[in-house]
């Protein structure tokens, strides 16, 4: 089983026993404010998400990992690589953690480990991230991880009747290695 370890956390695939904790995080409207879907309404959505996120050889286009804080293994959130394109060796990066843990540098720490894995082990060449330009926390994390803003797509999403723009960020393997990380 894939497991990545950072200073404070371990990243590994979610299991059905995480459904309650995952639901608590992603049913919070503040956590979902800039997401591309509504806050979860029922625990079934957490169960379905976990089932669909199981690592599968038939479906290598995504890698979803729970973020567990050591030593108690509390689930803080999740991070993922999705839309993995094996031919062009690129993927999109996503992340979300519980409000109680914002501002602790957690996503910066685990994002670093996931990106390192993506470039070194998965041999990806490019990682992209799409965020709401108002999501200043995400923009700061991405910039700190070495991403640059590459594009801006107005009115790209309509979620619950609310229209929002997208800022597109990118990071190349060559930029990552040149930065000496
Ligand atoms: C955005 C998010 C991923 C940032 O992760 P984090 O682990 O809190 O990030 P950090 O602790 O490294 O903080 C990075 C910076 O963003 C700021 N920040 C973190 N969360 C913030 C928030 N919700 N609003 C405004 N600023 C925020 C931090 O204060 C810090 O600022 P600084 O660099 O000036 O000190 C996290 O807040 C989150 O999960 N939000 C909800 C889900 C979400 O929006 N995911 C991204 C969808 S693309």
UniProtKB/TrEMBL annotation:
<dbReference type="InterPro" id="IPR051908">
    <property type="entry name" value="Ribosomal_N-acetyltransferase"/>
</dbReference>
<dbReference type="GO" id="GO:0005737">
    <property type="term" value="C:cytoplasm"/>
</dbReference>
<keyword id="KW-0808">Transferase</keyword>
<protein>
    <submittedName>
        <fullName>GNAT family N-acetyltransferase</fullName>
    </submittedName>
</protein>
<dbReference type="InterPro" id="IPR016181">
    <property type="entry name" value="Acyl_CoA_acyltransferase"/>
</dbReference>
<feature type="domain" description="N-acetyltransferase">
    <location>
        <begin position="9"/>
        <end position="168"/>
    </location>
</feature>
<dbReference type="Pfam" id="PF13302">
    <property type="entry name" value="Acetyltransf_3"/>
</dbReference>
<dbReference type="InterPro" id="IPR000182">
    <property type="entry name" value="GNAT_dom"/>
</dbReference>
<dbReference type="GO" id="GO:1990189">
    <property type="term" value="F:protein N-terminal-serine acetyltransferase activity"/>
</dbReference>
<dbReference type="GO" id="GO:0008999">
    <property type="term" value="F:protein-N-terminal-alanine acetyltransferase activity"/>
</dbReference>
């Amino acid at each position: 089983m894939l497991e990545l370890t950072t200073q404070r956390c371990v990243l590994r695939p979610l299991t059905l026993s995480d459904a309650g904790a995952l639901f608590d995080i992603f049913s919070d409207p503040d956590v979902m404010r800039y997401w591309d879907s509504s806050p979860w309404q029922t625990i079934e959505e957490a169960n379905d998400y976990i089932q669909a996120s199981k690592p599968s050889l038939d479906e290598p286009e995504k890698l979803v990992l729970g973020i567990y804080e050591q030593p108690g293994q509390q689930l803080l959130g999740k991070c993922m690589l999705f839309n993995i394109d094996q031919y062009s060796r690129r993927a999109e990066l996503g992340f979300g953690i519980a409000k109680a843990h914002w501002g602790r540098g957690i996503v910066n720490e685990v994002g670093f480990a996931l990106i390192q894995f993506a470039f070194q082990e998965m041999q990806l060449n490019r990682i992209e991230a799409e965020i709401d330009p108002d999501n200043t926390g995400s923009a700061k994390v991405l910039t700190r991880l070495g991403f640059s803003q590459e594009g801006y797509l107005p009115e790209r999403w309509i979620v619950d009747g609310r229209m929002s723009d997208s800022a597109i960020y990118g990071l190349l393997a060559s930029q990552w290695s040149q930065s000496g990380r």
